Amino acid sequence: MFDFLKIILIVLVLLLLIKKKWDLALVLLVGSLLAAVAFRLSFKVFIKNLLGALSSGETLSLVGIILLVLYLGTLLQVKGNFKILVDSLKNLIPEPRLILALPPAFIGLLPMLGGALMSAPIVEEAAQRWKLSPPLKTFLNYWFRHIWEYCWPLYVNVILAAAILQIPIKKISAVQFPFTILAAILGLIILYKRVPFLPREKSDQNYPKSLFNLFFSIWPILLVIILIFGFKLTMLLSMALASLLTQILVQMKFQERLRIIWKSIQLRTVFLVASVMVFKRILEVSGALNSLTKVFQPEGLSAYILLFMVPFALALLTGVNHAYVGISFPILLPIFGSGHPDMVLVLFAYVSGFVGILLSPAHLCLALTLECFRADIRETYKILVWPAVVIFVAAFLVLLFLRII
Questions:
Q1: Residues 6+ apart with CB under 8 A from 25
Q2: The whole model's pTM is what?
Q3: Which helix (H) or strand (E) element contains residue 110?
Q4: Which pLDDT band holds residue 85 (cuts at 50, 70, 90)?
Q5: Domain ranges of the chain
Q6: CB of 92 within 8 A of CB of 207?
Q7: What count of other Cβ atoms lies within 10 Å of the Cβ of residue 201?
Q8: pLDDT digits over 307-356, tens only?
């Protein structure tokens, strides 16, 4: 119990620092230090794991992906591709406000750490007509980017859950698909409530031309999707090939190429990515995460508490989707049942964890979107918390009516 209280204290300190508007990367580094001290990690072990996290293939690959995403986003924005995309959608979609939701939802089909960063410039371009606040733009981009993660079979957390439970992925996808629908509905409610209706803008483009311009404006993104799903290439390699092709096919002067590359390099974002990975590593090696399971007994009412607490706490602390599944689901396996798990219990645990992901300040997509829009995290939470709570309440009601009562 004492270890559990340590974790609660660390979370409270991090929340306090966030409230005082400390830089999120610095907050996560402070969290790493606090976890190391609280769980008696020696200085030598701390430094070893800090350097190990910074130099790991996962971190370096992630930094590479983020830099390439920033490059593609900057290129498409500077060259006017996002404006062409928005103009095409204006002609193709009868309801103008959907332009704020569809691009992040479309890019959300592409499993990618920090993927919200790719759709953020599109939302920024589309939002100019309404002069939306940074927190609202952050919410719309962030929320619709993540509506698929309950069921989309290409996400690592869904794949991991199926592997741990020893069931087909389609079984998890089918059970959890209604929560994707619910998430989309909640996002649209906030969109229609907070963004006023404006008449559809007139366009001189015909439908075929708008459709062509739509695909032309985002061809590097479509290429990334084809390379990953069609040719089974890694995310890093796919992004690198798409970026290389833009340098070959897009007509630019040499000085303009250098200017775009230089503009896309954001050291603050790299620092944030590195801090997230260090925080995750220190939590793992310090034993902080394992201590969560020692508080509750996996039977009776304690089992239901465990189904919520372990995935939610892991997700809130790490902000990493596959981490909460990969760590908590093996622990919860005796409660689920292996081979023929109770899918209601699986659903409740999965959604509990994902709500923690949505609310986690360590979640890379949230951190990067806040950074991109220069949005205040507290104001963003005021919009984000209630739909996340509704998602959790829906999962709890399923558990209540199908298992507890």
A1: 268, 271, 272, 274, 275
A2: 0.71
A3: none
A4: confident
A5: 2-196+207-404
A6: yes
A7: 11
A8: 898 889 878 887 877 767 877 787 787 788 766 889 999 999 999 999 99
